[in-house]
Structures are given as C-alpha cells and as structure tokens.
Design a protein that fits this description.
Number of helices: 11
Helix content: over 70%
Low-confidence stretches: 13-18
CATH topology: Arp2/3 complex 21 kDa subunit ARPC3
Order of helices and strands: HHEHEEEHHHHHHHH
Structural class: mainly alpha
CATH class: Mainly Alpha
Radius of gyration: 23 Å
Distance between the termini: 46 Å
C-alpha cells in the first residue's frame, strides 16, 4: 500500500509539473509576455494616427524651432504604448534576463509580421457593394478605401518599425545588464529608466530614417527634427513612469515570494 501511495503521489507531482499554468514562474512569464505582445501589436496598428498633444490637452500648439524646422508636439498614437512596451522589457529583463527578452522580442517581430500579412490579405478580399457603401450616410464615402487607408501601411513604414523595435530591444537588454552589473540589486530606477532612454533614442530615429528617409524623400533635417519631438515625449513619459516600475516590482516580489524572486533575478544575470 505504501508503495502504491508513493507511486500515485509521484504521478500526481509529474502531472502537476506538466501543467504550464501550475507554476508561478510560468504564469508570470505568460502574463508579462502576453501584455508585452499585446501592447506592441496594438501600438503598430494605432500608430497610423497622428495627434496633436497640446491640443489634446487643451493648449494652443507650441512652436519649437529645431534645426530650422518649426515643430509642435504632433505624434503618432503609437507613442501611447511604446513607453509601456519598453518598461515591460525592463521588468522581463529583471526576472527572466536576456533569454526572456530576446525570446519575446523575436517572437513579437514574427507575430507582428504575420499580423500585417493577414491584414494585407484581408484588404485584397473583394467586398460586396452594400458593404462598400454602408457608411456613406455617416460621412464615410467608401468603406474599402477607408479600410485600406487605415490598415494598409506602406512596406517601408512596417520594415522601419520592426527594425527599430528589434534594435531598440537589443540595446535595452545590453544597457540594462551593463548597469545592473555595476550597481547590483540597487538602483532599479537607474538601470530601467537608463536602458529605456537609450533604447527609445535609437527607436525614435531608426524608424523615421528607414520609413521616410529610405522609403520616401524626407531630408535628414526633417527626420532629426521630428525624431527629436518624438523622443522628447518618450523621455518625459519614461521618467514619469519610473514609480510604476517599483510598484510592479513590489507586486511581482510578493507574488513569487522573496526566495523565488531572488533566485529568478540571479539567474536573469547569467549570460545565456
């Protein structure tokens, strides 16, 4: 009987270990990874909209002279989420290290590419006449054109966005671990905010250069001036969100428990 009880106990343990959601670490990675991917994917699609930050906040547009170009805070809607994506990168970096961030980054690029492929395929589908004229009474002249214009981003914008995202992510990982190697467990704000500021600096200019410098006829002055405005916004948001990092770290540490959380952080620093 004792042997049978021991065997059944081991079988239950094995079945439990086979369940992906049975372990706190697995659940944490799935939650962080899912939120990371969702934010990155949404940011890609809402990024086609340009909004005026000052007017959105109820102010008259500010006119800044940058390299001889007059600019106001006109940003893509994607900036609402990209700072969150890079902060998620730092949290994943803290607990799952280089392998975790790279795994999610490469996977996200692949899934975003797949999403765009399916969107372009859907644009090519022939709609019935009633759907094409469905919203004419609401001020939309032609639904197929509206659908194509909103979702059909140019190839260069897609390529620029994906390359900038991936390069930014790899830079974030590198800077984060360089800083943590020097500071140890202390100064979360320095390694998280510092790596985010560096990665977003790269992201802000690489996407514009590929999408509009190579893919269009924008001058370097125009790219730099618009990139500066975008980075200024991201810089301010990254600093403002620093307290959120400590709040999320506290939640995760309490969820995992002190011993498991520390073990994860130590493994995250291993070069793999």
């Amino acid at each position: 009987m004792e042997i049978l009880d021991e065997t059944e106990g081991k079988q239950k343990e094995i079945r439990g270990n086979l369940s992906v959601t049975s372990h706190k670490v697995s659940r944490l990675f799935m939650i962080l990874g899912g939120f990371f991917l969702a934010n990155a994917l949404i940011a890609e699609f809402i990024g086609v909209k340009i909004f005026a930050l000052e007017q959105t906040l109820g102010f008259d547009p500010l006119r800044w002279d940058i390299l001889g170009e007059e600019r106001s805070m006109e940003l893509t809607a994607g900036v609402l989420l990209w700072p969150v994506v890079f902060i998620m990168t730092d949290i994943i970096n803290e607990y799952f290290g280089r392998r975790g961030v790279k795994f999610l980054s490469y996977g996200t690029v692949a899934l975003i590419s797949y999403a765009f492929f399916m969107v372009f395929l859907s644009i090519e589908l022939t709609p019935p006449d009633w759907w094409v004229n469905w919203k004419q009474g609401s001020g939309v002249p032609e639904m197929q054109d509206a659908y194509s214009n909103v979702f059909g981003q140019s190839l260069w914008i897609i390529v620029g966005s994906l390359v900038a995202f991936l390069v930014g992510q790899l830079a974030d990982v590198f800077v984060f671990h360089r800083i943590k190697k020097v500071t140890g467990e202390q100064k979360i704000w320095l390694r998280a905010t510092g790596s985010t500021l560096v990665s977003q600096l790269i992201d802000s200019f690489v996407v514009l250069y590929i999408a509009f410098g190579i893919g269009s006829d924008w001058s370097m002055v125009k790219i730099l001036s618009i990139g500066f405005m975008n980075y200024t916004y991201k810089f301010i948001v990254a600093i403002a969100l620093t307290p959120v990092l400590y709040w999320v770290h506290g939640i995760i540490d309490r969820y995992l428990g002190e011993e498991l959380a520390q073990e994860l952080k130590e493994k995250a620093m291993e070069k793999r």
